[in-house]
Amino acid sequence: MKLKEIVEGKAKILIPDPSEYTKEGKFDPSWAPVFYNPKMVLNRDISVIVVSTLRPKIVVDTLSATGIRGIRYFLESWRSENLIFNDKNTEAVNLIKQNLKLNGIDDNVTKVYNRDANSLLYEIKADYVDIDPFGTPAPFILSSINATIRKGVVAITATDLSALTGSSVLSARRKYDVINSKLSSSKELGIRVLIGKVIREASIMEKTVYPLFSFYSDYYYRLFLRVDKGAKKAD
Fold it and tell me: Which of 3, 139, 172, 175 could form a disulfide with 180 if both were Cys (CB 3.0 to 4.6 A apart)?
């Protein structure tokens, strides 16, 4: 895999060279063996600010890819006691380790796993769990809430706006348990649909979530929610 070094924030990151995976003059990050999306810089910028404010002790970057998000958390925000990276792609895990070394981040504060995300999230606990998938976060919502301790925060990105905003009615029903339709206010309704899904998933485990901050940008939603315990609160 041919690599290219880039700079994002304070981080130096090795990514798959986009020129090697360009087709007919076009490049999609999903075509590379390890995912890096430059259009998500704002997402990561805001997330760094949130982590700086929350000051969590244990941070989980669940779907790490190149490791850019977790590395920026370490370099630009609160220095957590434990920073956990994970990706089920072996090439991604190798690249994360290279990028940690490139940025001088010590093994004493990091753990890098090569695991299925849901499997890992049912085994660990943290006060900040980050879910940034390619597409819908629906398969990871329950496990991410399970991994988040009381008063901790779960951060979730969703890029499947066709389902959330009502363009794809059947997909909305399958993934988010709603009957939705396209409206002039669909962008706002979509983020409410996503929050509602997280609340319902949390209630299964007698937990609840409180939205702290959410936004829409470009082609995605981003949520930050505080997790709390208690059946009565979930009700």
Answer: 172
CA-nearest of 175, 173, 166, 168 to 198 is: 175
Neighbour count for residue 183 (Cβ, 10 Å) = 12
**Low-confidence residues of the chain, pLDDT below 70?**
183-185
Q: Is 205 exposed, middle or buried (0-12, 13-18, 19+ CB in 10 A)?
A: middle
**What is the residue-wise DSSP string for 123-169?**
T--EEEEEE--SS--GGGHHHHHHHEEEEEEEEEEE--HHHHTTSSH
209 touches 225 (CB < 8 A): yes
CATH code of domain 37-234: 3.40.50.150
| pLDDT given at position 39 | 93
- Overall pTM surpassing 0.85 (yes/no): yes
| Res 184: pLDDT | 61
